[in-house]
Every structure is written in structure tokens, then in C-alpha cells.
Design a protein that fits this description.
Layout: H1 2-16, H2 23-35, H3 41-64, H4 84-105, H5 120-135
Length: 141
């Protein structure tokens, strides 16, 4: 049993290329060896040579192929599969959204409404006009 433990420590040190013992990795090896009923150093060496790391490398490759947040249409080889009917619906939705946005911003009917607050001169002019109409006098500005 000591020879198997020595084999696991030597393998771990060689694999990590470090002088520190990786306790978690050795525990993993020990669990795997116990599951496979490996009790001699020869059996352990054969198990390690037969592709023990290939399984972990395959698992790492599977992890590296995880989904990303990049949309498929950003792929340069993307082929748009939208039908003409669907495209017409999307264009109608887009047109309605743009019309709603323009209306909200005050750009409907070609008018541009940029400043809702009137200028000082405009305010004085409106006050003078109101006062003349209602009281017959104007406010000096």
C-alpha cells in the first residue's frame, strides 16, 4: 500500500511540476484507485499509463466548449433563415416602434421639438400679450 501512495505522490508532483504536494489531487487519485481495486504499484502505473489523464483532459475539453453569451448571428458564417413573411412582420414591428419613439420625442409629422421650456424673451412676450388681452396693460421686460 505504501508503494501505491508513493506512486500517487510522485505522479502528482510530476503532473503539476511543483514541489508542493496537491492534497486534493492525491485524494482524487486514491479514490479512483480504491474504486478500481488497485492495490499494487504496478497496477497503479498501468492504470496511469493507460489513459488516466485522457479522461480528465476530455472533461476539460468538454468544459471549454461551454455556451457563451455571443449570439449566433455574430458568427461571420451565419446564414439568416428568416422567411419573407416573418421578415415582413419584423419590419412592421420595427416601423411601429420607430413611430412610437418619434411621437414620444415630438418629432411626429416632421416637427422637431427640442426644448420644452420657453426662452425668457418668449415668456415676456406671452405675459405681455396675456396682460394686454385681459387687463389692457403690458409688463416691461
Amino acid at each position: 500500500m505504501d508503494e501505491v501512495i508513493n506512486l500517487m505522490v510522485a505522479y502528482s508532483l510530476g503532473r503539476t511540476r511543483s514541489t508542493n504536494v496537491n492534497r486534493e489531487y492525491i485524494s482524487k487519485l486514491a479514490n479512483d484507485f480504491a474504486f478500481k481495486n488497485i492495490v499494487t504499484a504496478e497496477q497503479g502505473l498501468l492504470a496511469l499509463r493507460s489513459g488516466y489523464d485522457k479522461k480528465s483532459q476530455q472533461a476539460k475539453k468538454a468544459d471549454s466548449k461551454k455556451k457563451t453569451n455571443v449570439p449566433s448571428w455574430s458568427n461571420p458564417d451565419y446564414d439568416n433563415q428568416t422567411s419573407q413573411a416573418d421578415q415582413a412582420k419584423l419590419d412592421e414591428i420595427r416601423r411601429r416602434a420607430l413611430a412610437k419613439t418619434r411621437k414620444r420625442k415630438g418629432v411626429a409629422y416632421g416637427k422637431s421639438w427640442t426644448n420644452p421650456k420657453p426662452s425668457r424673451a418668449s415668456w415676456v412676450w406671452q405675459c405681455n400679450r396675456f396682460n394686454e388681452a385681459n387687463f389692457g396693460r403690458s409688463k416691461s421686460g
